[in-house]
Specification:
alpha/beta; Rossmann fold; 10 helices; about 35% helix; NagB/RpiA_transferase-like; Glucosamine6P_isomerase_CS
């Protein structure tokens, strides 16, 4: 079956999308804007004396250098900020891969975010949260305790996943949206694409399992901000914005969210060039 939206021009793409779209000049502009929104929300909540709660990805990651620089330059306190990371790779025993592993998202956040922020500004370690295969109920309970998520940041996989919420064609949209933090097998498409980006194509060395927050936690956030920046995001954005809601392409289930947007460059908006 051929899907017409995959061949939509930029004009057709931006005509009545089911998820609001924001076309930006280039990838650095996207990442800077995401970092700016993070900082602005923290400043707003700090001024109110309130806690800020973000769901954070490791992919995209281009916004983190801008975020770190802005926090340090502004001397912005993160003491009332919680970062709940989306997911982490697991080993064959379905335990976290070592933080020292080059694929570890926990290791990435330590090396590139937490240790780069001035020690007097960075949030306490207990406010740097990852889904734990040994305690999958922790994050949903924590989010409820904290009063909900202010903004969920993330990307979109080639099969429409957000976090590692891989497609499950057998589920209805309503069933899929109720899925919470859990351990699952990583889809073969995801393993292939990630092996190209992270391991120079070494597919056999890609983890087969992961722990991820669910679509329930993401869809319940007050705001959702997604960034797309790769060649193949041309098709992903078109499917997300114009496809039908289905667990076959999970990001479509976020259509109709009260405050969501997908940011991408003019490069992605155009099918050529």
């Amino acid at each position: 079956m051929e899907h017409k939206y995959y061949s939509y021009s930029k004009q057709e793409l931006l005509n009545a999308p089911k998820i609001p779209l924001m076309v930006m000049e280039d990838n650095p502009t996207i990442f800077r804007s995401l970092a700016e929104e993070m900082v602005q929300e923290i400043e707003r909540k700090n001024a109110l004396g309130e806690t800020t709660v973000f769901i954070c990805p490791v992919g995209p990651v281009g916004h983190y250098p801008y975020f770190v620089d802005m926090v340090n330059q502004k001397n912005l306190s993160l003491k009332q900020v919680w970062f709940i990371n989306m997911d982490e790779y697991l080993d064959d025993n379905k335990q976290w891969i070592a933080k020292e592993h080059k694929l570890s998202f926990r290791g990435f956040m330590d090396r590139n975010v937490y240790t780069k922020i001035k020690p007097e500004l960075v949030m306490p370690e207990e406010q740097r949260v990852f889904p734990d295969p040994e305690n999958i109920g922790h994050i949903p309970a924590l989010i409820e305790k904290l009063g909900g998520v202010d903004i969920a940041f993330g990307g979109i996989g080639i099969n429409g996943h957000v976090a590692f919420n891989e497609p499950q064609d057998e589920l209805s949209p309503e069933e899929f949206l109720q899925l919470k933090t859990r351990v699952l097998d990583i889809a073969k498409e995801t393993r292939a694409v990630n092996s190209i980006g992270d391991l120079n194509g070494a597919l056999d060395d890609m983890p087969r399992y992961c722990v991820t927050i669910g679509m329930h936690e993401i869809s319940s956030a007050r705001k959702i901000r997604l960034g797309c920046f790769r060649d193949w995001h041309r098709a992903v954005v078109r499917h997300a914005a114009h496809g039908e809601k289905a667990a076959h392409f999970p990001v479509t289930l976020l259509q109709g969210h009260q405050d969501i947007s997908i940011r991408f460059s003019d490069f992605v908006a155009n099918l050529e060039g």
